[in-house]
What we know:
The chain contains eleven helices and twelve strands. It has helices spanning 14-27, 63-72, 94-98, 148-151, 164-170, 179-192, 217-230, 237-254, 259-272, 275-291, 306-323; strands at residues 4-9, 32-37, 52-55, 78-83, 87-88, 105-114, 121-123, 126-128, 134-136, 152-154, 159-163, 196-207.
Amino acid sequence: MPRLAIVIRAVRGIDSLERTLVSVLENRPSDCEILVALDRPYADPYELKDEVRFIPAAKRSSPVAGVNEAFALTRAPFVHLLSSGCTVTEGWTEAALARFGDRQLASVAPLVMDRERPERIVAAGLGYRASGRRFLVGRGSCDLPLAPSSEMVGACSFAAFYRKAALDLVGGFSAQLGMAQADVDLALSLKHAGLTSALEPQSRVLAADEIDAGEGPFLQALHDERLFWRNLPGKRRGSALVAHAGLVSMELVRSFLRPRMLLELAGRTLACCQIGNYARRHAALVQLGSRGGRPKSAPERVRVDAAHAASAHSQSAGARAHSR
């Protein structure tokens, strides 16, 4: 069984994927396997099937579902998620994996630098405001924040290391969200379980500044609104609601009298109508909080919504078939 599974999420075309694959294959550690969650058909012109496992994109499957399927198909104790378009250098996994000696640590964020301007930070981890705003810590800076851990809640989905048992505990990423919301949603779930995240500056990944580009206005608004309600704090709820109202108002002002505004309103309105999903999510967070302690090697999974539970069931079946 390999120690590390490197899961590459294919986005933005074949050239982007092949750039990342070459980088990973040239610098991979000896004890690892490589899986690629495809977003389109890939002919494998370089005949990498003996070195790389390609996971076809299912019809109408979301990017989140593809990543969760890749997670389910590995038994490695640690998983490294990487978006295509990122490039790596020799030894980039070593310092990150060394941090997992802390059994409470669920995820490690590598330091992501701008490929065109290597002195400029793209992300030093992931942050989240009570208003519902997700942000990249240190973005645009040439120096690390003095205390990045004070803002950081987890690792970005385009470059992250995870303890597999921690992913199993919460069932991976939520299928109710896009990748640009599912990473912080996962980080907040792990935090409720009493687990922690860390930044490892010695583990470096290069990426284009647009690596964290969002979705279209409707889906972006839908998923952003779901993210907020799924993680509405139990304490100081009133101040969070006021801050969120301000955030949404500013968004609408920026798109005022443009077609985008109607799409954003429609997305947020639809998300506000799905109260039952959020109630189940909050109950799951309470359950996670009551567990405490470190994840076991094969923990009972804690699901957060019906759609995710169904997706996870099919992934587990796939994993069992793969192990035969």
